[in-house]
Amino acid sequence: MHAIEKILAKNSGRKEVHAGEIVTAKVDFAEINDLYLQTVYSFYEMGGEKVWDNERCAFVFDHYAPTPDIKSAQNHKEMREFAKKNYLKYHFDTNCGVCHQVMPEAGLAYPGMILVATDSHTTTHGAFGAFGTGVGATDMASILLTGELWFRVPEVIEVRLDGTTSQGVYPKDVILTVLGKLKADGAVYKAIDFTGSYVDQLNVAGRMTICNMAVEMGAKTAYMQPNQDVLDYVNARAVRPFEVQYSDPDFEYEESHQFDVSIIGPTLSCPDSVDNVATLSDVVSQGDVEVDQGYVGSCTGGRTEDIAEAARILKGHRIPKYKKLIVVPASAEVMEECMEKGYMKDLILAGATIATPGCGACLGAHQGILAAGEVCISSTNRNFPGRMGSTEAKIYLASPATVAASILAGKITDPREVVEVGQ
Amino acid sequence: MKSFFRGQIIVVGNNIDTDQIYPGHFLALTDPKEIASHCLAGVDETIAENFPKNGLVVAGKNFGCGSSREHAPIALINMGASAIIADSFARIFYRNSINLGMPLIVCKGISQRVADGQNLSVDIKTGTVTIEETGEIMHGENLSNQAMKILEAGGIKPLMKARMAKLRVQPIDSKN
Ligand code: SF4
Question: What is the pLDDT of residues A216-267, one digit of tens each?
Fold first, then answer.
């Protein structure tokens, strides 16, 4: 069996499970973000009174942190009332950050567990060897009632990443390259196991960036075998004992895709779909691409490591007049760390606008929305039409370093050029 | 459960994601009618108001990809779509729609065979899709037993409600 199958088997009280089977499995933690007041409504419609376990579910207010309008404030208010009424042990209000960052920080994502959240990017927790998957409000309400959910055991695709990336190339460039090959529907209903020497040595932040975007290929969940970095992280934080699962050596993947990361250069996802991937050099060779806004943030590109790269490039420089750079730390913890290390100051002096930790403009709710005709280069994970505001705005996805280099130059720019200039 | 649907179609393309089905800046809305008025606004803002009575939506590959927002199927259902037929669907959207009682038919190639304004008849039990204008019959995939069970109950809510009433689950009170 694969480690993912072992997790599903363990939580559904079975010895073995195999791809295609439907199992009902216990959920170790259920997280509801603030887009999903519908969960509360569905819970009551189904005859719910109290949640199944008040230590295993929590709200995270991240998409509207803090609330931009009366309607979202009302939604938060109703969710707070539900949390209070159910004596939920954990609660993450608007002062915490993006759910996928907040969960591991709080010790609620750890190896071998099933974490379900009302958000598609819950695949992020594969970075910790957990089974993380997203559901809608009504599935979530069923979990709150019963503590379990039905799953189809997914086929597992291997994405093998070997080698070492060259300077100026980041986990974001790697996952965009993978996406360009597998495409937006390359893994629908399936799980992606990221393996190979690159993954073995990758730090927690890089692992999260990559697993986060597995869902952009349609994957139900992502997985990476925990390494020492992960174990150090979770040992210091996990709220419960955990058991790391390992795939059997004879496990056979449904498909396997190999990548040599040493030949990857800075990569872009071009408008208007995530899998419209091109190398940065190909894009700029066809002419300058002017940008109006840079955006560093989100659950895939807003961690300390990401902000550090942007700060390193921008330190001592100033972005051009009439250009905007929005920086949104993924969590309060990230913000604090970035303040301590001086990154925030460097970025403010470079002309960045700092927004509250949370989702910010990643989904076009507030804090950096785009007007028609504007072009944004962003370290986020989606560039569908209208994702960050007007449907007539254009979004390029890139590494935080590429975002910083591009906004500094006012046009899409290879971060390696700026580093050389700066040195 | 009604298993036979007939209606005029609107056709949308490949990889229509949940942001196009239901743009992010309307996510704070909770009233189903209001939600429905913005359905498919990311594709064309006039679709919702002109949607034919008992209409059906036909889509290309990977319909509903992107976020897990349940607003997407809520918008489609309340706009009046009685079923969706697509080359393929994204996973969370698929679950959400079935959970809310809206039938989805996977019918490879359908989006290339039809045009806006044509009429389709769909039998969800057999997966048969008939294009009325041309008489062409296409065979979609059968729904899984799990999906059928949920649809037959009218969605997951009635199913759960019955289960909760039967089990009389005593939830754990505060452990604090
Ligand atoms: S940061 Fe963006 S992708 Fe991540 S949860 Fe928030 S809105 Fe979704």
Answer: 999 999 999 999 999 999 999 999 999 999 999 999 999 999 999 999 999 9
Beta carbon of A359 within 6 Å of any ligand 1 atom: yes
Q: Omega of the bond prior to A414 within 30 degrees of 0, cis?
A: no
Determine whether the interchain pair A382/B65 forms a contact, defined as Cβ–Cβ distance below 8 Å.
no
In a domain, B98, yes or no: yes
> Are the C-beta atoms of A171 and A194 separated by less than 8 Å?
no
Could you tell me if residue B176 is inside a domain? no
Q: pTM for this structure?
A: 0.94
The DSSP bridge partners found for residue B56 are B9
Q: In this complex, which of A71, A118, A369 lies closest to B28 when CB atoms are compared?
A: A71
Calculate how close chain A gets to B67, using CA atoms only, in Å. Answer: 5
A60 Cβ inside 6 Å of ligand 1: no
The CATH number covering residue B162 comes to 3.20.19.10
Q: Calculate the CA A133 to chain-centre distance.
A: 12
Indicate the DSSP class of residue A82: H
Q: Is B20 on the interface with A (CB under 8 A)?
A: yes
Whether A305 has a pLDDT exceeding 60, the answer reads: yes
CATH fold of A267-416 reads Aconitase; domain 3 (3.30.499)
Cα distance from A218 to chain B (closest Cα, Å)?
6
A218/B91 touch (CB, cutoff 8 Å), yes or no: yes
> What is the 3 state secondary structure string of A45-64?
HCCCCCCCCCCCEEEECCCC
Q: Could you tell me which residues come within 8 angstroms of residue A25 by beta carbon, excluding any fewer than 6 positions away?
A: A8, A11, A12, A114, A148, A149, A150, A151
